[in-house]
Amino acid sequence: MPIFSTGVVASSYLLEEVREKLVNVLRKEGFIAARIDVHYENELSIDKVKLVVRSVVGKPVTFKFQGNKAFKVNEFLDTINIFSRRIPFGSNTVNLLIENMGLLYRRSGYLYASISKQQSLSDDGSRLIFTITIDEGKKVHVSEVSVKGNSEISLEQIETAFLNAGEVYYRDMFHPDFAVSENIREHADFLSNYYIHEGYPDVRVESRIESTEDEDKVRIIYTIEEGRSNRGDWVIVEGIPDEVEEPEIPKTPYSLTKANDYIREVLNALRRAAYFNPIINSSLISDGTQLKFLVFPGEKSTVDKIIFEGNVVVSEETLRKNLSLKEGSPWEAKNIQESRLKLLKTGLFSNVDIHEEKNGSDTKRTLRIVVKEKPLQTLQLGGGLNSEYGLHIFGEGSDMGLFKDGRSLSLRLDAYYDSVNTDVGRSAVNLRYLDPTFGGSNVSFTEDLRYVKQSLANQEFDLDRVSLTTAFYDTMRSGLTLSAGHTIFEERLNDVSPDAILSPLDYGVLNISSLAATLRYDKRDSALIPTRGFFASLDAGLASEMIASDANYYSLNGKFSYLIPLHLFDRRFVISLASRLASAWTFDGTPEIPISQRFYAGGRTSVRGFSENSLGPRGLNGSVIGGDVLAVNNIQFNYLMNDSFAWHSFFDFGNIYLREREIDMTDLRKGTGLGMEYLSPVGPIGIDIGFPLQRRAGESSYRIYFTVGTLF
After folding, report:
1. Any idea which architecture 302-373 has in CATH?
2. Which of 311, 500, 601, 704 could form a disulfide with 623 if both were Cys (CB 3.0 to 4.6 A apart)?
3. Rounded distance, CA 712 to CA 662, Å?
4. Mean pLDDT of all residues belonging to the chain
5. Are 179 and 223 in contact (CB under 8 A)?
6. So what CATH class is 231-296?
7. Domain ranges of the chain
8. pLDDT tens, position by position, 205-218
9. Which pTM was predicted?
10. Which helix (H) or strand (E) is 196 found in, with range?
11. Per-residue pLDDT tens over the stretch 222-240
């Protein structure tokens, strides 16, 4: 089968493609040492070239494996990247293969696996044959890890040092599944380096694996000879300028290594504050147990010139407006990083690089800012399946060319097809104005004009709504964001189920004007696919006749989620917990929260196992009324099968309550189930199947949900 046909464009990509395909073909036939050279040679014609292939294939090789039960042949060959490796294999290939096979077995618990090889020729002498024989032995687990000989440094301190290096690293040291010699040597080296850092320069650490009475288990023992101590009890630092953030002085007793680390931290702090040529003198005082550092910071470096590159449409004025420094400013790292983030925040650039250039002076530097502009007009089209609303189709166009300074206008259309009603159940159109750096600050400002038409099988009313939202967003510090705004809308409520009506605010035309504020604190390791950390948010809202609202009410809505990796059991196992509590209160004569503003629960984002918005109080004819109190809890056990897929089991419980009726917080609806997720670059995309516990009349025995994003 030909690799390519004549007449194709002669590109460097084609050369690489031909080389890779030829190498793969040859390696599949056993020519693992094959060397392929592919290049072009000029023809007489000006627009044609000849593609020339030169090869040295060597003698083909066959690998035969005997005794392997735990692994397949392709798993062995993958350890040497038999088909993806670019460099040809040499005479040491079989030794490399056996070495990697041994590591593969040890990492899987086959501590006593032995591997041998035998070399021969085929009958016609044309092919090398390597017969690799494996005696796998039994799988052996680690029953205990002990550290002996540590008298000056406690086991708790040692454990803390490993934990600071990472939870996975800590687990591999103190709770390993298997005894892997490479890992054990690495941990012994870590112990040795830790002792040296703590002031024991002559420390010796030895490790060994011991058998136990149970032949399927072993123990790992680390033995420490601490040696002499070379530590002091005090550090004195003088001369650091007031505006420099002084690093934390090492805790006593200090070692020479700690002192050197501290000096490096001081130098880095000075450089961040634009002191690029400091001098630090050190001396021993008292009886030699106290160390004094005297800092001479030198002169501050400043920005002498700012040069921009790559901006074609965006003006230099816009670039300068989004910088946190100018000519003559101190060359401070935090201002340079802040400038880069502000430029990216405008949305005008896909990349921003900032380079330093010296001007022949130790104290004056040129700032070169290289940007890559984004298209100022974008159009996005897409679709999907939403468990609550149905088939989803959307389109969004955005234009930053009107302002060319980061501000944008966007128009978005959404439509959801409700298969129950066989009609468009929800449609929305919104026009949005965004200023990501309002008034030259880090605050974002938005105006959102929106029209929504909604007629869903899982709601007791239809509505047509026109709304205008004005909001400000501010990231105050790492993980902490604050937003505040005002929304005014007019909605027409139609086809309201009679037994879901609690007051005149539940039908006809309703005008609501409300103020809202949200505080969020996010300390998860990833907002898209979190595996550890916590998230907390608090929403507050107020609607009042004083700001032209037909109803008077206020609300609080709090959510907290926490993700805990369970490394003691399996490093890919995570337990996720989430709680949401919300309440709304009326005042000044408003009888009930309007039906469109009440709380609802049940479904993929609250209590799985139930249909969307199906929980809580019901009317005389069984209609869902909604409530003014919400309580929902989610417990989920996640297992990361690999970097792309995860499965989980869950247990959800919660309910909706109405104050005019009895609030019984023990009346909780519960659901459980399983799910699978694809961990995409934009977040998890998955499917859940939920089963209600203590199912009531009219409730389905199971529900299937399509999910995007995370509950936690």
Report:
1. Roll (3.10)
2. 500
3. 30
4. 89
5. no
6. alpha beta
7. 12-135, 141-225, 231-296, 302-373, 458-708
8. 999 999 998 889 99
9. 0.66
10. helix 181-197
11. 999 998 887 766 678 888 8
